[in-house]
Amino acid sequence: SMVITGVGGTGVVTVGALVGMAAHISKKGCSVLDMAGLAQKGGVVTSHIILAEHPDDITATHVADGGADLLLGCDIVTSASPQTLKKISRDTLTVLNTYEMMTGSFTRNPDIEFPSDELVGIIERVIGESKAHRINASKIAAAAFDNSIAANLIVLGYAFQKGGIPLSSKALEQAIVINGKSIEMNIAAFRLGR
Question: Which residues, other chains included, contact 166 with Cβ-Cβ below 8 Å and sequence gap of 6+?
């Protein structure tokens, strides 16, 4: 099971849909539950994804507390939120996009310093340092593709290469093609993350 976190406009729902489609292509069971609170206004977006060998093996629609095998942290602030921290444990492989995205609370106080090290520290206290992988995917995506939305596919590729996604790269790339949006860029971003 995995949790994908981000803020509105970062394409978290798209990544969840791609994983769901890849599972379907692979004839595996999959449940995708998207929770998008005020996503259009930069609010928290979380996807709970449960994968199983067979569709009949899916018995829940959300990841149980402490039950996430993988956290795809497309946004570091959301990844360190209490709601997300409840879902992870020492067994959770974590890939964090360390790009410092200012959320609404930061924009109201422009003098505040972005607490990226503190946020990563909060997550590492739950999972341990050896399971946390940091990557500034937004910066890489902007440099490689002139498009920061590709960052989520870089995070997905990185997590795949670390063994966090029990699907084939072929199925994930087929899902990107079926999605039909920015196909070449998204496949290249996924491969770059790997």
Answer: 28, 51
Give the total residue count for the chain: 194
How many whole angstroms separate alpha carbon 1 and alpha carbon 10?
21
Which amino acid does the sequence have at 89?
S
What are the backbone angles phi and psi of residue 43, rounded to the nearest 5°?
-80, 175
Q: Which residue has the tokens 């890849």?
A: 22
As a whole number, the mean pLDDT across the chain is: 84
pLDDT band with cut points at 50, 70 and 90 for residue 60: confident
What are the pLDDT digits (tens) for 34-54? Answer: 877 654 555 677 888 899 998
Residue pair 99/137 in contact by the 8 Å Cβ criterion? yes
Q: Which pairing describes strands 44-52 and 2-7: parallel, antiparallel, or unpaired?
A: antiparallel
